């Protein structure tokens, strides 16, 4: 039980994008041919937006010779009876064609957007012109009960293509969507002979909103400065908290196997249109909680209870050990955290571990926490005022939250150091004189 909860090697998985290949195309034709339509193929299975739930998206286009945007937020909707074809209509309901006198067009798109039910849309207000492309401010809903249940997976696309481009192929314009947000998950496991109960898990003090812009700036070596040209600005945005609370009197116990607290959206959830606590948050860099220099830094907060599990039946102080009946598989427990002189299974306490977000768009970050492992303990006491944070102040009354002991401070270990021994070995002491013992 050393310094704190062990934050195991953070699992980072690339979230696959809408692949741009021969079947992933924005089809644009001149007015002697078919109207504009879209065909896409999705290979992603790790995040929320896929062909099964992408019903519509908005398109912007800049063409040489047009004073205004050639296409300005018009909607491409999925064609009935197809898996991957989308039809683009103007706001007046007319077909749109590639102008015969235009050689090159820039296309931008984002989704989900333009759905018949506005609740299915991503909530942003883009301002896109030929000179500047801003997708607007985006703030994932801050919910401390149901995690990312209402979070949506924002996807964006850009391409610049000419009629003479060899990849055009019959006026089929490749269009590649990229995931603009970061997906965050939290998992936990516990060490041998320990039992962990968790009622809530939250990401605290992370940037809650940001402005997404298209930016083709390059570095000194000519490489794009921003991944897929997506620049997120959030420095002056307010901080926010996200997470889940588990209802029920007794949550499932955590042992040596990893348990999902804030889960990655699974392929099955996506295909079955099921909700998930997976968090879709603004990509960002943020400083970690540091009680000396940054009391407003990022950390993972947990409301939990830690027990030690021992073999044999429980006995009272002073009782003869030999009188305790022990059967196969008999165990008993002792409460390690929260610190309390009572024995009450409804007692819980707050602990935390600092994190340093460095999240990129389209990447899944899974924080794997280990309690009471070979090199880990139970975390540290969180900053003052946690119980008064909006969303945490109304934790059900039947749950007894034990305050931090008066002799402990924020940042102190919630578990004391493990039992150890300081050993001395006495020197051999000779007798005053040798004992003569005759052999009779």
UniProtKB/TrEMBL annotation:
Q: Does the keyword Signal apply?
A: yes
Q: Which residues form the signal peptide?
A: 1-22
Q: Which Pfam families match?
A: Mfa_like_1
List, alphabetically, the InterPro entries matched.
Answer: Mfa-like_1, Mfa-like_1_N
The lineage's top-level taxon is Bacteria
UniProtKB keywords: Signal
Q: What protein am I looking at?
A: Fimbrillin family protein
